[in-house]
Specification:
Layout (H helix, E strand, L loop, with lengths): L6 H13 L17 H5 L26 H8 L8 E3 L5 H18 L3 E5 L9 H10 L8 E6 L9 E6 L6
Parallel strand pairs: 1-2
Antiparallel strand pairs: 2-4, 3-4
Helix pairs in contact: 4-5
Length: 171
Amino acid sequence: MKRELDPGDAHLWAVVTATVRPLPGRAHPVSPKSASPAERGAPASPAAPPASAPAPRRAVRHPGPIEPRRRHRLAAEREPIGGRIDLHGMDQDEARAALTQFLLRGHEMGRRSVLVITGKGALGAGVLRRRVPEWLAAPPLRSIVAGLSEAHRRHGGEGALYVAIKRAEGR
């Protein structure tokens, strides 16, 4: 049996439905019937969001792709891959910390490209596979990452990424 929502809950539900992104092929969540017509279709006012509402998520600009010729040289092993890191079996916090430390150390050592193995995940929708590009676009890595591209099949294919690293200053 469903209970009627009080106005505070209805407002909170309206905020949630205005900020979610449905999965492909799915519709937006339907507002509860107890909400007023203004609350059902209208998103929360941006001037005064409730204290418990999450902050709107900023669009993350992912690093651009590696230049096609450079990617081809990496795939053909004519340009060396400076290092490899395998994130299999790690949770998101461990993987992000390991990736950040690995890339910062590689940048200091003058490495120009590395291979990041994320795995494909269940049904090709792995969490790490999806999150690594976001992490590369966020501080402190965005200042050292020049680009990223899916790896060649021999290096892991869809479950791995080539990451191009910018030159360290003074080198």
